[in-house]
Amino acid sequence: MNAKQHKSIRQRILDQMNKTPLWMEFTLVLTVILLLLINLLVYSFYFRDRSIIINGRYADAERVLDLKMKSLEKYLEDLSSFSVQLVYDTKLYSAMTSDAPLSDSDMENLRSAIKSSYYSRSDLLTYHVQIPSKDLSVGKDAGREGFRSTVTEGITQSEAYRLCSANPKGFAILPSDLEDGLFHYYHSLIRVEDRSVMALLDFDAKKSALDIINASSITPHEVICLYSPENVLLYPKEDPGIQEADYLKTTVQGESGLTLVSYLPTSEIMAHLQTTKNFATAAGLIFLIVAVVLVIILIRFLSAPLTALAVMQDQYAGGYLEDQQLGRSKESAELGKSFHRMINQIDRLLERNNDTEEKERTARLKALEAQLNPTFIYTVLAEISEEALKQDQPEIRDMLVTLAGNLRYTISAANVVTLREELQYMNNYVKLQKLRLKERIQISQIANDAAMNLYVPKISIQQLVENSINHGLRGDDNTIHIVIDVTVKENKSLLIRVRDDGRGIPEDKLQEFRLSFHKQAHYSTDEDPASLTNLYNRIRLIYNEGAAMMIDSRTGENSYTEVSLLLPHADKIKHR
To answer: What are phi and psi of 6, to 5 degrees?
Structure first.
């Protein structure tokens, strides 16, 4: 959308507002404010309650999950204690640690011990004792009757053996391959003499152990996941495919390395909040309707004096004014009084209108008479210059032509001129001064063509040069050199420096001059370049805060005076 279209839309809105009563505009604004405020309150309370409820549910889930993990850890400790019972049988311990093959009697004792241990618990689906030194596995498989012994090679190369050896507590938990299994538990039996693994026990725990996990659920739809120390999913068998954005996730890790994760559906939490939100929204709407009605009544009551004031203005425009007193508020009463005072003042002004018009006509006549004086001066100077030419006095004629040009430049209406025009005026001034001072004045200029069309205050450089001549010359035979340096800076700003090698300004006077610039006051002494103060005040009026004047000087040997003008945006000042 361009600026023109934006302005058109803005104008249409303003036109529509001009057709709308004030009470309706006030009502609309207050309605929008109330609506935003009610929505802000409803949603702030909603999100506050949401945060409180979610944090509470999270804390409850974490507390319950921690209790479940403690129960699960206790169950694992029980399995660990159960696993080492075979070590307490000295005959069986000797047989398993011996390098000799197991005898029939040893095999029978091993089967009997395994059978006794297996049937002492109801939570096991399988039970095996693997002896790495004998490549032997003895135990009971799920769905098979009796206890079998099989030759099993590579026990020490298995993942379970590696995990048990790496675990300081000597156990490992892996996913169960059985449908009714919760997890597969491995536990190593250590030889006392050299701390090597003499046997590896493993069994599948039944899902009945899930009572430890599923007990005391937060909600019926809570999902519990169990992960091994290696972050392998143990329960449930398949990944539930939960989108975490729809659930409140709580995680607890036990000392065994197992991790319990609880997923609570946020939809159940949000259901209660939605009811609260609907109730708060309905209450807010009712409050809004009541508030809008009261606002309409109040605003129409308070804005009635404005309507009466508009009627009074129409009556006055028609030549008849009924005297009415506006009230209903202090401001309305004051507005009515101000309106009547304004009407009385207008009447008095109208009575003096004829006198004012007469004075204006007189002023115009005087202005026309004043315009005749410069014309008369130009005419006389022109006649004198022609007479000088007839008398063969070209120098006098040039002096008169130069003087007429400077006079015309001085009384022109412009406040700013181009640098080229100002330098031409300055050169004419110097030319006239040289008629009196001859070669005691030496002028040099440094300015490129790019600066010539930029704008400077009228009679500014000439004032600086005049100040150098009037206050810089010493005695009757000294010569003064003046250098005018004009530099174009960024943003088309001009830096004008006028430097002379005259007698300079004493330090105390220099400080007083600078102080007068800072205070924008006129400072006057016999040695004061008063024109500088006037020039400073002029450039401050033209350029506001952007302009600056600096003065620097030194007396004695190698004395000098340099005055600098900084004029911003010299290419645009003519439009101000």
So the answer is: -60, -40
Burial class (CB in 10 A: 0-12, 13-18, 19+), 51: exposed
E-strand stretches of 99-206: 127-131, 136-140, 148-151, 171-174, 181-190, 197-206
Distance CA 566, CA 550 (A): 8
- Alpha carbon of residue 176 to chain centroid: 56
Lowest mean pLDDT among 20-34, 279-293, 350-364, 488-502: 350-364
Structure tokens given for 207: 């899902």
Q: Which two tokens stand for residue 300?
A: 């129409």
If residue 453 lies in a helix (H) or strand (E), which one and from where to where?
none
565 with 469: CB under 8 angstroms?
Answer: no
508-517 pLDDT, tens per residue?
888 887 777 7
Residue 496 has pLDDT above 90, yes or no: yes
Kindly state the helix (H) or strand (E) to which residue 322 belongs, with its residue range: none
Distances (CA, A) of 467 to 416, 508, 562: 20, 18, 11
**Per-residue pLDDT tens digits for 230-257:** 889 988 888 888 887 788 889 999 888 8
Please state whether the predicted TM-score (pTM) of the whole model is above 0.70. Answer: no
* Amino acid 366: pLDDT: 46
CA geometry: angle 523, 527, 533, nearest 5 deg: 35
Contact 274, 49 (CB under 8 A): no
Judged on CB neighbours under 10 Å (0-12, 13-18, 19+), 320 is exposed
Q: Please say whether the beta carbons of 460 and 539 come within 8 A.
A: yes
Closest CA to 93 of 78, 105, 110, 117: 110
Find the helix or strand (DSSP H, E) in which 481 lies.
strand 480-488
- Per-residue tokens: 178: 């059985």
Other CB atoms within 10 A of residue 195 CB: 7
Q: Which of 138, 235, 128 is nearest to 180 (CA)?
A: 235
> What distance in Å separates the CA atoms of residue 181 and residue 127, rounded to the nearest whole number?
12
Give residue-wise pLDDT tens across range 82-116: 888 888 888 888 888 887 888 888 888 888 888 88
- The answer to whether 149 and 137 have CB atoms below 8 angstroms apart is yes
CB 474 within 8 A of CB 503: yes
> Of how many residues is the chain composed?
576
Q: What Rg do the C-alpha atoms of the chain give, in angstroms? A: 54
**Percent helix / strand / coil, the chain, rounded to 5:** 60, 20, 25
Q: What is the mean pLDDT of residues 288-295?
A: 80
Q: Which residues pair with 560 in a beta bridge?
A: 554
Here the tokens at position 450 are 């790019």
